[in-house]
């Protein structure tokens, strides 16, 4: 079977090596490579092995950082907020309800313009209790001022931590970044990962230099109250401007990373077999990865279909998607999350980007909620619905519950 | 100058606290005791508003504003962040009200104290949610009228006794725990000096009378603060690394003298004042027991 | 047997019970194939099972990067670490035509009467002999991989030995001896021989 | 460059004299320079200065003495209430 877009495993440096590891280990090594100095977290399945790995690195003197296990996720992000404000590169990781518990602090971190990177293992929100893959947790946080990246492989999960700090700390961005892995499908799955060379990472990612860090020589109030006629509105608008500015920075820094590490990450999106595609699937995370596999099979059967994989949900790649959809007959957007009263959140984002600019049938698909496996046949049925030029929302592989 | 209070002022004038604000005095004394190498974290509270709107700051030390429940965790992060950079000589102070400490921030406080960070947690206790307009908190005493325990026809004042966070901190065996109040700034500053000598978490609960929420004239703040101690409504004590010292150097007065000075207790009848009197006596006896239980050498 | 050629992706499903090391087995197999330059993915069936409960683990092996992230529904090979599982789960479910089942059992392959290539290895006896685990709870996963190598040829004995050496937490030599003994003692019955 | 919400201007530039309804006045000829008014001022609106010849006696005239900063005094009256010599008068502010 012929494959496209295979990432080479050529080694850039003699210090790079390739080994097998889980997504959570890859993420922990990403944080280590990014030279994080302070880590605070609260355990939650399936995030736990990230912080366990980091704690063990510190215990074995492989990582020069302080790890503080706090008593809640709210406190984890509050502690990371505070340490970052002192000028120390800080990191945390969470999942699902932990992320929801952090919600208030998410806004606080972004509003204070702290370039923190956090890993989130996407897990369903209860009830009922469910620990499996579902992106509803992070989709719920889309309006908190954090950049959001969804990875499709363990390698990408590692590299995104490194790129994430670089982008977040850019003086024209200064917004935090959330890096996502689908629960278990990446977090607990072992696959080959190239361990980056620390020297090369150091060259790519300099030390944090927070201009407004806490300094008793220069006392300031951080996040004081502001009035309707003060600058409050301007602060919020500036966050939007910075989020827009991040699009350019993401492209530049991803390009730089690709050159230095011989990777070929797309910036906001990745395209797969879109050049001659009549139909397009739009997806995020590991669903997109499975879609690549299925697209190869569909192509063998004569269906000219391609994939637009969204890497950055925030800032959202409206223009990039529009550019690709100009040439297709119809498209479908896959969401592994639920917004009650709306259903497909990514779908509605895509539609708002297209509105008034092109008019093709675009359908919405809800898959894999609560970790329901997304199978080859599920993507095949999605492709068939797209080919039929369908619109509307389709729930895939839903059972009749009696 | 015939006072031992340090002259250095790290809280500037021009802030926007109410007339006669006890919380402001608490901050002024704490910073005098700690000096300029100090970083303060303040959650939602009166003190998040006292410095005024942007672009103003009223402290001559960095002040970090955090959400309501974040004080304990934020001082943990500040401490570790500074230590990582070798700045261990800076004092890290959480300065939170009683709502942010006894209620919404209790989990974060307990966690920070348990983890043993070298921090100060100052609870300025004005016995209610004064910033939002005088609502009941866990730290509001029995008998007090607040806007959420209003005295209507049914006389629905607060029926529960004060949740005393300092006592909880002793139960948690925090290395330094003390109570203080603004009427005795020398005592307050001395306690912070004692706390400074202890490496680890330090908790100090400062009674900060609030003319706006306790319904008394603003010039009476110090007087009320003094009566709180003398009436034993707010006993002063110190718990230093397992040893408990109760300040008994006051000539006790009857609870009614304290109660009658504030309109928040105006509605109480003699029977209800008797309830308070009994409560105060029981608690005092409990503290005397602690003094025996955690007996230490005579203090210098 | 031993004539597998990697032209398509191989999908292997492990059935065991919590504590037997099915998940570790799937990972050591991936490590062995990875050492031979293959692309691999190894993952457990993501459950909340505790020790003793049935567990499933998966390995995919391919010449090129593996994008398929779904569970394995049509395995080429099924490895059964515990015959108890034969009663509780349909281990044959979705097995490819002419697929292979490798069972931890002292019995003969023909006894199982399965419509597949069947191999049996007395992994419990091997584990006990080499002091792996306890009699109540023998650790048999490395023995199963020795048998796997011999039966399928997807990974060489040398690769399995090396992956075992690198991945077992203790008793390295004993585990490697068990791999070799299982490799030598596995009994194989091809499907066409049944018919 | 981005907008970061930090406050840098000291409230020393923010006068609160307009908050005052009652105005305290120290009668220096009765003031014993105990500095209790300074100690208890929540608005930090009493400064310490050196030597004022208006004093009960020559010894006290040489001492540091309290000066109310009317730019910041909100007129809460704590100083007058706590003054042991009762030498601080509170009078309604007259706007001239």
UniProtKB/TrEMBL annotation, chain A:
Gene3D superfamilies found in the cross-reference section: 3.40.50.920, 3.40.50.970
SUPFAM superfamilies for the chain: Thiamin diphosphate-binding fold (THDP-binding), TK C-terminal domain-like
GO-annotated molecular function: oxidoreductase activity, acting on the aldehyde or oxo group of donors
InterPro entries registered for this protein in UniProt: PFOR_II, Pyruvate:ferred/Flavod_OxRd, Pyrv_Fd/Flavodoxin_OxRdtase_N, THDP-binding, Transketo_C/PFOR_II
Keywords for the protein's UniProt record, in alphabetical order: Oxidoreductase
Domain Pyruvate flavodoxin/ferredoxin oxidoreductase pyrimidine binding: 30-253
Biological-process GO terms, alphabetical: carboxylic acid metabolic process; response to oxidative stress; sulfur compound biosynthetic process
Superkingdom as given in the UniProt entry: Archaea
Domain annotation Pyruvate:ferredoxin oxidoreductase core: ranges: 277-379
PANTHER family with a match to the protein in the record: PYRUVATE-FLAVODOXIN OXIDOREDUCTASE-RELATED
Subunit structure: Heterotetramer of one alpha, one beta, one delta and one gamma chain.
Name this protein carries in UniProt: Probable 2-ketovalerate ferredoxin oxidoreductase alpha-2 chain
Organism of this sequence: Thermoplasma acidophilum (strain ATCC 25905 / DSM 1728 / JCM 9062 / NBRC 15155 / AMRC-C165)
Automatic annotation (TrEMBL), chain B:
An annotated Gene Ontology molecular function: oxidoreductase activity
CDD domains: TPP_PFOR_porB_like (cd03376)
Gene3D superfamilies: 3.40.50.970
GO biological process entries: organic acid metabolic process; sulfur compound biosynthetic process
Residues spanning the signal sequence: none
Keyword Translocase in annotation: no
Keywords: Oxidoreductase
Keyword Oxidoreductase: yes
Superkingdom in the source lineage: Archaea
Cited Pfam families: TPP_enzyme_C (PF02775)
Domain Thiamine pyrophosphate enzyme TPP-binding positions: 65-206
Assembly information from the UniProt record: Heterotetramer of one alpha, one beta, one delta and one gamma chain.
Record-given protein name: Probable 2-ketovalerate ferredoxin oxidoreductase beta-2 chain
Organism (species): Thermoplasma acidophilum (strain ATCC 25905 / DSM 1728 / JCM 9062 / NBRC 15155 / AMRC-C165)
Lineage: Archaea, Methanobacteriati, Thermoplasmatota, Thermoplasmata, Thermoplasmatales
From TrEMBL, chain C:
GO MF: pyruvate synthase activity
Pfam families per UniProt: POR (PF01558)
Broad enzyme group: oxidoreductase
Region forming the signal peptide: none
Catalytic reaction annotation: 2 oxidized [2Fe-2S]-[ferredoxin] + pyruvate + CoA = 2 reduced [2Fe-2S]-[ferredoxin] + acetyl-CoA + CO2 + H(+)
InterPro entries attached to this UniProt entry: Oxidoreductase_gamma_subunit, PorC_KorC, Pyrv/ketoisovalerate_OxRed_cat, Pyrv_flavodox_OxRed_cen
UniProt cross-references to Gene3D superfamilies, sorted A to Z: Pyruvate-ferredoxin oxidoreductase, PFOR, domain III
Top-rank lineage group of the source organism: Archaea
Residues annotated as domain Pyruvate/ketoisovalerate oxidoreductase catalytic: 18-184
E.C. numbers: 1.2.7.1
Alphabetic keyword roster: Oxidoreductase, Pyruvate
Name by which UniProt lists this protein: pyruvate synthase
Native source species: Thermoplasma acidophilum (strain ATCC 25905 / DSM 1728 / JCM 9062 / NBRC 15155 / AMRC-C165)
From TrEMBL, chain D:
Domain 4Fe-4S ferredoxin-type: 22-51, 64-93
InterPro entries linked: 4Fe4S_Fe-S-bd, 4Fe4S_Fe_S_CS, PorD_KorD
Cofactor: [4Fe-4S] cluster
Entries under PROSITE patterns matching the protein: 4FE4S_FER_1, 4FE4S_FER_2
An MF annotation (GO) of this entry: oxidoreductase activity, acting on the aldehyde or oxo group of donors, iron-sulfur protein as acceptor
SUPFAM superfamilies the UniProt entry points to: 4Fe-4S ferredoxins
Entry keyword set: 4Fe-4S, Electron transport, Iron, Iron-sulfur, Metal-binding, Pyruvate, Repeat, Transport
Gene3D superfamilies in UniProt: 3.30.70.3270
NCBIfam families documented for this protein: PorD_KorD (TIGR02179)
Entry protein name: Pyruvate ferredoxin oxidoreductase, delta subunit related protein
Organism: Thermoplasma acidophilum (strain ATCC 25905 / DSM 1728 / JCM 9062 / NBRC 15155 / AMRC-C165)
């Amino acid at each position: 079977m012929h494959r496209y877009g295979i990432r080479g495993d050529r080694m850039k440096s003699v210090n790079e090596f390739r080994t097998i590891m889980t997504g959570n280990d890859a993420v922990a090594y990403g944080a280590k490579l990014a030279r994080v100095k302070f880590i605070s977290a609260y355990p939650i399945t399936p995030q736990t092995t990230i912080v366990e790995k980091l704690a063990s690195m510190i215990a074995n003197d492989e990582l020069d950082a302080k790890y503080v296990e706090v008593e809640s996720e709210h406190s984890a992000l509050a502690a990371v907020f505070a340490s970052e404000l002192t000028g120390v590169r800080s990191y945390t990781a969470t999942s699902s309800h932990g992320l929801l518990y952090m919600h208030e602090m998410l806004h606080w971190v972004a509003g204070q313009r702290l370039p923190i990177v956090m890993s989130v293992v996407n897990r369903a929100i209860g009830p009922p209790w469910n620990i499996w893959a579902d992106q509803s947790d992070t989709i719920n946080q889309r309006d908190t001022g954090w950049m959001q990246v969804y990875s499709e492989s363990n390698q990408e999960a590692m590299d995104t931590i490194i790129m994430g700090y670089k982008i977040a700390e850019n003086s024209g961005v200064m917004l935090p970044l959330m890096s996502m892995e689908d629960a278990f499908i990446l977090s607990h799955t072992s696959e080959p990962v190239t361990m980056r060379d620390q020297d090369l990472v150091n060259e790519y990612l300099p030390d944090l230099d927070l201009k407004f860090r806490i300094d008793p020589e220069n006392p300031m109030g951080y996040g004081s109250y502001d009035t309707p006629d003060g600058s409050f509105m301007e602060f919020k608008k500036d966050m939007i401007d910075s989020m827009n500015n991040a699009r350019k920075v993401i492209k530049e820094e991803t390009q730089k990373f690709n050159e230095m590490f011989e990777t070929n990450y797309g910036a906001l999106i990745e395209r797969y077999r879109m050049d001659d595609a009549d139909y397009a699937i739009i997806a995020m995370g590991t669903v997109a990865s499975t879609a690549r596999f299925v697209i190869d099979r569909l192509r063998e059967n004569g269906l000219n279909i391609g994939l637009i994989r969204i890497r950055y949900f925030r800032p959202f790649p409206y223009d990039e998607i529009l550019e690709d959809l100009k040439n297709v007959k119809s498209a479908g957007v896959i969401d592994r999350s639920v917004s009650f009263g709306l259903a497909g959140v990514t779908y509605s984002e895509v539609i708002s980007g297209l509105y008034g600019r092109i008019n093709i049938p675009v359908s919405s698909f809800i898959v894999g909620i609560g970790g329901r496996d997304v199978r080859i046949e599920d993507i095949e049925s999605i492709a068939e619905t797209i080919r039929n030029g369908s619109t509307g929302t389709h729930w895939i592989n839903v059972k009749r519950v009696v | 100058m015939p006072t031992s209070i340090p002259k250095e002022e790290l809280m500037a004038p021009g802030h926007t606290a109410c007339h006669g604000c006890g919380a402001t005095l608490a901050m002024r004394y704490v910073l005098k005791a700690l000096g300029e190498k100090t970083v303060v974290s303040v959650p939602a509270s009166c003190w998040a508003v006292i410095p005024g709107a942007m672009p103003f700051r009223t402290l001559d030390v960095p002040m970090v504003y955090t959400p309501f429940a974040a004080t304990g965790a934020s001082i943990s992060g500040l401490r570790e962040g500074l230590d990582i950079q070798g700045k261990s000589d800076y004092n890290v102070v959480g300065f939170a009200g009683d709502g942010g400490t006894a209620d919404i921030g209790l989990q974060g406080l307990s966690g920070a104290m348990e983890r043993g960070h070298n921090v100060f947690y100052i609870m300025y206790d004005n016995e209610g949610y004064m910033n939002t307009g005088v609502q009941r908190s866990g730290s509001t005493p029995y008998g007090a009228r607040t806007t959420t325990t209003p005295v209507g026809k049914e006389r629905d004042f607060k029926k529960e006794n004060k949740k005393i966070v300092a006592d909880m901190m002793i139960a948690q065996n925090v290395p330094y725990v003390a109570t203080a109040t603004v009427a005795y700034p020398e005592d307050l500053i001395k306690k912070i000096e004692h706390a400074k000598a202890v490496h680890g978490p330090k908790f100090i609960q400062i009674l900060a009378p609030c003319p706006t929420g306790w319904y008394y004239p603003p010039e009476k703040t110090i007087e009320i603060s003094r009566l709180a101690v003398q009436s034993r409504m707010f006993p002063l004590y110190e718990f230093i690394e397992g040893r408990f010292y109760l300040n008994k150097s006051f000539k006790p007065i009857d609870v009614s003298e304290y109660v009658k000075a504030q309109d928040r207790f105006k509605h109480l009848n003699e029977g209800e004042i008797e309830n308070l009197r009994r409560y105060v006596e029981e608690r005092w006896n409990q503290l005397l027991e602690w003094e025996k239980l955690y007996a230490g050498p005579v203090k210098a | 047997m031993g004539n597998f050629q990697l032209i398509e992706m191989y999908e292997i499903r492990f059935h065991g019970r919590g504590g037997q090391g099915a998940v570790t087995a799937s990972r050591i197999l991936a490590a062995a194939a990875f050492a031979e330059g293959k692309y691999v993915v190894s993952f457990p069936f993501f459950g909340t099972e505790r020790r003793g409960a049935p567990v499933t683990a998966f390995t995919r092996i391919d010449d090129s990067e593996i994008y398929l992230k779904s569970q394995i529904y049509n395995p080429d090979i099924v490895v059964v670490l515990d015959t108890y599982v034969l009663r509780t789960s349909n281990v044959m479910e979705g097995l490819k035509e002419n697929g292979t089942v490798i069972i931890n059992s002292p019995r003969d392959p023909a006894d199982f009467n399965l419509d597949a290539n069947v191999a049996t290895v007395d992994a419990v006896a091997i584990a006990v002999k080499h002091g792996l685990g306890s009699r109540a709870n023998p650790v048999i996963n490395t023995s199963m991989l020795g048998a796997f190598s011999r039966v399928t040829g997807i990974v060489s004995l040398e690769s399995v030995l090396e992956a075992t050496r690198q991945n077992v937490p203790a008793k390295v030599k004993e585990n490697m001896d068990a791999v070799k003994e299982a490799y030598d003692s596995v009994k194989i019955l091809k499907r066409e021989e049944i018919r | 460059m981005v907008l970061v919400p930090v406050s840098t201007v000291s409230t020393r530039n923010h006068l609160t004299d307009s908050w005052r309804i009652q105005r305290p006045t120290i009668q220096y000829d009765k003031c014993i320079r105990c500095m209790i008014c300074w100690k208890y001022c929540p608005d930090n609106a009493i400064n310490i200065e050196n030597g004022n010849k208006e004093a009960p006696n020559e010894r006290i005239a040489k001492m540091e003495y309290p000066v109310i900063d009317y730019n910041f005094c909100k007129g809460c009256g704590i100083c007058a209430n706590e003054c042991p010599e009762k030498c601080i008068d509170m009078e309604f502010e007259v706007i001239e």
